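Dear support,

I submitted the protein below through the web form. The confirmation email said the job was done, but the results page showed an empty box. After a refresh the structure appeared. I'm attaching both so you can tell me whether what I see now is the final result or a partial one.
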Amino acid sequence: AFNFVRLVLHPDGGVARLRIYGTVVPNRTEGECDLACVTSGARVVSASDETLGAKEALILPTKALATDSRGVRGWKTRRSRTDEHHDWAIIKLGEPGFLTRVEIDTATFDGDQPVRASIHACYTELESPERDTECFWYEIASRTELNANTCHKIDVQLNDVPFSHIKVVIHPDGGVSRVRAFGQRVAEIEKEAARECAEAAAEAVVAAEIATDSNEDQSATDDVLTNDVSEKPATPKAARSPPSARAKPQTPQKQKPMPRVESSADETSESTSLHKKSKKADKPEIRKKKAKKPESINVKPEAQFSSRAGELILSLTSPLPAKKRSRTRSRADDEES
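What the results page shows now:
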């Protein structure tokens, strides 16, 4: 690839024009770019008419100016006399890509711009879609009204389908200065997808290595535990205590109810007396000093004394309380009276 050309004249003289034909090496940039620009490798394959302006001007990177020559200002077709007439120009993109938006610029064209314009796209591996019989054109931008000296930005339909060529259709005729198609290259998207797959595969490998290391650590721990258990002396079966002799937790035993036995009346009375005695035995003994009652002397009436001494003896032996006893009179009292 070359980026400079030197023209040498021998020995001298003049040259009117210098044209160099070839394929432009695209200036690759990451992300969204103008795939219909000459710097991206695009070129105009064919056009229906270019009487008043060259078709190659559609893909120039600079903005058109009124002072530019006819071949640089833009693509322009001659006037038609029918309303159904339309002109077209086919542009091969620098690389196949997914388009997001297009721009139709009518700068330097005031009054001679087309009335309407639409954009179609297709995918083919051939240089010209006209040679591909199986090629099909999709309308990615419907007919849009065009104004003079205006850059029209149109969103693209079917932005998830890759395309290699676009066709600019103007109705019925006129001039267009620039056409731009922005999108992302298919190769770049495939590269990103491959990078994502590689990253996912690397993550899977790392996860597998971590899982393997953890399994090895677990197996090593199990081996150490197994060796520790095998080194301990095994106790003979005779020395082992049977399961019945092992200590069991003592649970509180519930008192069983006493069986009911039917008894006769005598046995019932005896049990009642025994029950009362047991209650008395349970109570603490409280000793109380009780006043002894004077023992009464039963004296027959025929044996009573008739004298005063007999009345005194009878009063002393009476069972009545002391406070109610009448005062006995002595013989001295009688004599005084």
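Response: this is the final, complete result; the empty box was a page-load delay. The mean pLDDT is 76.
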